[in-house]
Amino acid sequence: MILLQPLSSFPSFFLFLLWTTSLVFANEDSSFSCQFSIGPKTFNLTSLTGEHTVNRTRSTPPTTMRDVLIFNLCDDLETSDKMEKRDQCPEGTRACLTKINLKDDSERIISVIPIAQTSSLNEMYTMLPSSEGLSLILHGARYPNSSEASSSQQYLNLTLLCDRDATDSNSIEFKSYNGSELHLEWQTSAVCTSGDDHDQTGDGREGNDSDGRSYGSGLGWFFLVLLLAFAAYFGLGAYYNYTTYGASGMDLIPHRDFWKEVPYLLSDVVSHLCSSVRSRRPSNRGGYIAV
């Protein structure tokens, strides 16, 4: 049986609502969508979206190791129905490294490592000082287990270099992996600068338009969640008053006395602001002293 406890005070509950909606608003903006700005330059990497595969082979006699990385910069990887779930990275992964051991004609998966995950992405991007391009870092969780001292923080370090003639599907190089950082180098035209700093996009569109849409979308979500939170407050409050006190009509409104005082509180605030403005106006009687 669930018991609804009375709220100790409206201000504390109101602050809780604002905190909850701010978390949702922050989460809305935290999703990396391949569009961002660095100083005056706006980048649009949506032309690089989709799953890409790059691998390297290492000789480890008497066997051979093959490291296969599948990644998608702009969205989560899709799970495959053709593979066992334990042989794939969990949902919400953007970069997945699979280590395969080969001996004679047999293959054996020895580890599956989520290098970058949306839940802990914490993307970081910087311009390269020596060449036209940028460095993009996407984070993942600790591996193999966040509770083990021997686990390491995983992250993808992607160096994007400008190459207007590169074919993006064949220009990704697996540079290194040290158990924590996986370094890729990608020759692509998506980061090549143009004459207009504000049109630094892979498809020639203005970057500022996408920023405006993202801002408007986030603001809309904020007000939507705020409206739903207030609706939940009044609904739960009315239900509590009805089931606990048998209230009806206007008595169902939670913290009714406070809401009755709101117009007077607003009136006092406006009156105080107006009086403050009047008191700051210079007096026309300067130079005269009352006797």
Helix and strand arrangement:
Layout: H1 10-30, E1 35-38, E2 41-44, E3 52-60, E4 63-71, E5 93-103, E6 106-117, E7 124-127, E8 133-143, E9 152-162, E10 172-177, E11 181-188, H2 207-245, H3 256-280
Parallel strand pairs: 9-11
Antiparallel strand pairs: 1-2, 3-4, 4-5, 5-6, 7-8, 8-9, 10-11
Helix pairs in contact: 1-2
Low-confidence stretches: 1-11, 18-29, 196-214
Kindly give the count of domains.
2
Portion of residues in beta strands equals 25-35%
List the strand order in the largest sheet: 7-8-9-11-10
Tell me the CATH superfamily of the largest domain.
Answer: Mannose-6-phosphate receptor binding domain
Number of helices in the DSSP assignment: 3
Gyration radius, in Å: 29 Å
* Major β-sheet profile: 5 strands, mixed
Task: Report the average pLDDT across residues.
Answer: 79
Structural class, from helix and strand content?
alpha+beta
**Strand segment tally:** 11
CATH class of the largest domain: Mainly Beta
Distance between the termini: 76 Å
Helix % is 25-40%
CATH architecture identity of the largest domain: Distorted Sandwich
Write down the CATH topology of the largest domain. Cation-dependent Mannose-6-phosphate Receptor, Chain A
**Any idea what the shape is?**
elongated
Written as H for each helix and E for each strand, in order along the chain, the element string is HEEEEEEEEEEEHH
